[in-house]
Design brief:
The chain is built from eight helices and two strands, in the order H-H-H-H-H-H-H-E-E-H. Strand 1 and strand 2 form a beta hairpin. A two-stranded antiparallel sheet has the order 1-2. The protein is extended and about 65 Å long. The N and C termini lie far apart (about 40 Å). It has about 160 residues and is mostly helical.
Length: about 160
């Protein structure tokens, strides 16, 4: 089953998808000495106008909307039928899953396929855009792993002192 907390930890299984031609370059953690280098890199993005800011905010909110990541990850892992998504995504209700699948389809990250059988067979698969989104989330997952480890180390040092 895929729970909300599993999404961040398990998107790394899509690292092979994200590796692409560059072989999956490693992302180094941001440390104090690297801060100036990272600021310089961020300056390469240039001025962010209001329209770019809105696009950024919309993208972050879409990717972070509850259940979207778990549903996409379930699709990447092979869920196709509604019942498979429901069994894989731990804790989601039928009503919410149906609503999220419709939203994801409207956004173009999930494709809905209808087969004229008796009874009708409906399947859902991640689109190329959905796979790309999972790939793009991989560096965020890696950042979270480093950030969580750093915080845990700081908490342990503070508790020991």
């Amino acid at each position: 089953m895929v729970s909300q907390s599993d999404v961040a930890a398990n998107v790394s299984s899509s690292a092979d998808l994200a590796a692409g031609a560059d072989g999956g370059a490693e992302h180094a953690p941001v440390l104090g000495d690297d801060l100036a280098a990272h600021r310089a890199r961020l300056e390469q993005f240039g001025h962010i106008d209001e329209a770019a800011c809105r696009r950024f905010q919309r993208s972050v909110e879409f990717a972070g909307r509850k259940w979207n990541g778990a549903i996409l990850l379930a699709g990447v892992r092979g869920a196709r039928r509604f019942s498979e998504y429901r069994a894989t995504v731990d804790g989601i209700s039928d009503r919410l899953l149906a609503a999220r699948l419709k939203e994801l389809e409207a956004e173009g990250v999930i494709e809905r396929h209808v087969k004229a059988t008796t009874p009708v067979t409906i399947t859902y698969t991640p689109s190329a855009s959905g796979l790309q989104l999972i790939e793009l989330l991989q560096p965020l997952v890696e950042w979270d792993a480093v950030h969580t480890a750093a915080r845990a180390g700081g908490d342990a040092a503070r508790d020991a002192g």
